[in-house]
Amino acid sequence: MAEIVPAAEFARNFGRYKMQAQREAVPVSSNGTLAGYFVAPHEYDELRKLKGMRRRFLTAELSDEEAERIASSRMDPRHDHLNKLLDPK
Predict the structure, then answer these.
(1) If you average pLDDT over every residue of the chain, what do you get?
(2) Is residue 80 a part of any domain in this protein?
């Protein structure tokens, strides 16, 4: 991971960081706080595509049959050890 670059340094040396962004995301800070990342166009495009692939729905949109199938489903026994993580301690 690249070192965090102060915004003033980023602005003064934009060309340098534009080239660096082709290899890795460049974290930029403002007043000591991370403000964001400067990334290459292809990285940004990939992120937009991934975000577009997310499927969202409201549980209220489920049919009664779909809701019942989900409610009656059970986890494969191979994952029983994960249930212990939910037990109150």
Answers:
(1) 92
(2) no
